[in-house]
Amino acid sequence: MTAYVRPAIASPVFIDDDDQVIEYGRRWPGSPPEEAYSVDRHPERFAPLHAVADALIAHLRTAYDVQVHEGIDLASDLLRLHDDVVRAVRVAPNDPACAALTFVYTGYPGVLLHAGLLHDFPYPVCGCEACDSEWTTEADDLEQQVLAVAEGRYRESVDAGRRPWVEAETTFPNGSRSGRSRGEDLPAERLAAASPILTGRTSPWAPWPPAARC
């Protein structure tokens, strides 16, 4: 199987009021200034994430036995409606034991990734000046999450009970990331549909089947 390689992408350059290049990701050696919070000055710096998503979809289409569908209506895979959708692509393995992925492109610009049944991952998480996020870091996270799902290193589960909790865990070569949320905060119909599959689950979704080779 051919390994995924990020395409060459030129980083956008932005100039501040003093005609200096803004070095996103390295601006605040300590705490950011108060006025940086809730200010989103150059969201266009995340535009390369669309090219990264394109490359990931192309890789998944070539490397795995999947079906790829495109249409704005597929943004409904997200747990909550988003009013800034410009494109949506679902990549679904031809094996129900695997988690599907839906890439939702936003005009912000950014990417929302729906993985499996009950989890959405935003890239960037936050674009405010205080967070000082830079597109390559967000691209790293997006790529790692997508490849982990395809390689069977992503688990979702529902902790059954009167007030259920929904959990997700992703394992990476250098560690893992997990989180949990209250089931009551999710759309009731989505939780009800996923619960028979995810309740008490301890194993990850299966690795995607590789594409057939001639």
Descriptive overview:
It is a single chain. This protein is of the alpha+beta class. The protein has one domain. Strands 1-2-3-4-5 form a five-stranded antiparallel beta sheet, with helices on one face. Strands 6-7-8 form a three-stranded antiparallel beta sheet. A hairpin with a 5-residue loop joins strand 6 and strand 7. Helix 1 runs parallel beside helix 2. The two termini are 13 Å apart. The mean pLDDT is 93. Pfam families: DUF6226. InterPro entries: DUF6226.
List strands and helices in order, with pairings.
Layout: H1 48-63, E1 66-70, E2 85-93, E3 101-106, E4 110-115, E5 119-123, H2 135-150, E6 154-159, E7 165-172, E8 175-182, H3 188-198
* Total number of strands: 8
> Could you list the spans in which at least 5 consecutive residues all have pLDDT below 50?
none
The figure for the number of domains is 1
Strand content: 15-25%
Strand order of the largest sheet: 1-2-3-4-5
- Count of DSSP-assigned helices: 3
InterPro entries: DUF6226
Pfam families: DUF6226
List keywords for this structure.
three-stranded antiparallel beta sheet, 3 helices, five-stranded antiparallel beta sheet, alpha+beta, about 210 residues
Quick overview:
This protein is an alpha+beta fold and 214 residues long. 20% of the residues lie in helices and 25% in strands. The chain contains 3 helices and 8 strands.
